[in-house]
Amino acid sequence: MDLLKFNQTKLFASHFLLWVGVWFFYVYFFSYNTTNTLYVTWFSSILLPITMLTTYTTVYYLIPRYLMNRKYWLFGLYSTYVVIFTAFLTTVTMIGSFIFISNLQVENTPVMSRNLVFILILIYLVVGLVSFVYILNHNFNTLSQNKNLENKILDAQLHLKDQELHYLKKQIHPHFLFNALNTIYGFALKQSLQTPDIILKLSNLLDYILYQVTEKEVFLKQELDHIEEYISLEQIRFQDTLEVTIAKNDFDENIRVPPMLFLPFVENAFKHGAIVDGKLQIHMKFEVTKTQLFFKIENTTRNEETEIETARIGLTNIRKRLELLYPNHYDLQVKTPKNSYVVTLKISLHD
Predict the structure, then answer these.
(1) How far apart, in whole angstroms, are the C-alpha atoms of residue 85 and residue 90?
(2) Sheet architecture: strand order including 280-288
């Protein structure tokens, strides 16, 4: 409420100062080559309301109703009516001032006050200036409103993207948890000394999946360490029937990636892979350069159509997440040669 009163007071003060300035403007021009200050003062004072009426009619009626709505013909027509009405009032003012202020003595009237065209030019000079400021301010406010609207839309889109990313992260939690718990249960029954180590590895991995996944980015080395921890848990379950190789080049340890970017691919390899010739073989390759991150994972499979199709469905969420994180900056390819399932991912690294 106080802000509204302040804005109203500010608007009133600005209009008051404007018309005081216009009044002095008139006094200055009509004082040219005359010493009759009384006539100049009264004539300027009478002309001021005419100028105000013309200005407010143009600015608050003609411009917003017709010019802003691109009704140019009607704007021109009604503007002509306003000019004629203003000229009529100005003529009446000139005649009235000549009769009542100068007592019909032409030599006592300022030269400038006898020229109707000149007076109309002065009036419309004020109208034009105020109209220009009004249109400029209107365009600025429109741009500001559009910008605010764009920002609100952008914020809404970002919020939706964050929600979708959060949802997708929830979707890709590894299902191996149940297998790991069954493995722990089996080792616990045997009272194996490996049980505490398995529990610790599972705890570390769950901490990464459940909590650190909320981070926007993690170090690439951290992601790879958890992949190796994941593989070590699966190695306990598969024993001698699992063969995993990881090839990686030396890379800058400061490189960061979104959490769980590669772990879902590894999870899919175990989930949809098959033991062929006594082994489930999984081969991974990481190559990182200044401009690109290359990842490839290949696992053995029986190439049954249902298994391949299921794996593709599993990659759908991963592809959606990549589209949100790296729009137009990634390439994900899936190939199914004989007894193999190969996924390659290329990500362009940019600032």
Answers:
(1) 9
(2) 242-248, 280-288, 292-300, 340-348, 330-335
Residue 154 in contact with residue 313, Cβ under 8 Å?
no
**Sequence-ordered list of residues with C-beta below 8 angstroms from that of 232, at least 6 positions apart, any chain:** 201
Rounded distance, CA 125 to CA 120, Å? 8
Residue 161 binned pLDDT confidence (cut-offs 50, 70, 90): low
Distances (CA, A) of 221 to 101, 197, 286, 287, 300: 94, 22, 11, 13, 26
Q: What's the rounded Cα separation, in Å, for the pair 50 and 104?
A: 23
| Sequence-ordered list of residues with C-beta below 8 angstroms from that of 170, at least 6 positions apart, any chain | none
For 348, the token pair is 């362009």
pTM: 0.51
Provide the 10 A C-beta neighbour count for residue 279.
Answer: 13
pLDDT tens, residue by residue, 207-242: 766 666 667 788 888 889 888 888 888 888 788 898
Backbone dihedral angles phi then psi of residue 120, each to the nearest 5 degrees = -65, -35
* Distance in angstroms (rounded) separating the CA atoms of residues 143 and 152: 14
User: What is the predicted pLDDT for the residue at 192?
Assistant: 73
Helices and strands (DSSP H and E) totals, the chain: 9, 7
DSSP per residue, 178-235: HHHHHHHHHHHHTT-TTHHHHHHHHHHHHHHHHTGGGSS-EEHHHHHHHHHHHHHHHH
**How far are the Cα atoms of 109, 130, 166 from residue 94, in angstroms, in the given order?**
10, 24, 76
For 129-161, give one letter per residue: b (16+ CB within 10 A) or e.
ebbeebeeeeeeeeeeeeeeeeeeeeeeeeeee
Question: Buried b vs exposed e over 95-120: b needs ≥16 C-beta within 10 Å?
Answer: eebbeebbeeeeeebbebbeeeeebb
Question: Which pLDDT tens digit goes with each residue over 76-132?
Answer: 999 999 999 999 999 999 988 888 887 777 777 887 788 899 899 999 999 999 999
Q: Name the CA radius of gyration of the chain, rounded.
A: 40
